[in-house]
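Collaborator request, handled under Task 6.
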Amino acid sequence: MHSETIGAATFETWSIDEVADAFAANEIVLIDVRTIPEYAFQHIEGAMLFPMPFFDANKLPGQSDKRIVLHCGSGLRSEKMARAAIEAGIDRIAHMEGGFGAWKEARKPYIGTSMSTGGPERVNT
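Structure tokens returned to the collaborator:
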């Protein structure tokens, strides 16, 4: 994990393995900031959707029990939204380095779309 201090806030960048381990242990809330169609086609099972066009840091859940980690397709949008959260007064926020593309590249499981049925299917790469 890399961390950066921005004023009184801490901005963290988590690796894919750190996110996967913490998510499996129910230690974090993973929030996907990609678009609705991106999420519908493929997403990390259990990740919440809060698309960037509708993102309002003031509506994020508190972090007393679980930390918030944002992710997108490549890490660019999630970093931008994490920084926006800090500007809105959140004092600690994280994002996943490399985004969903890196998650798939690391062969982590996700929900995809079956090309034969069009329905969701688990992909355990």
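The cover message to the collaborator said: "The helical segments are 16-24, 36-41, 76-87, 99-105. The chain has a mean pLDDT of 94. Please let us know whether this matches your experimental observations."
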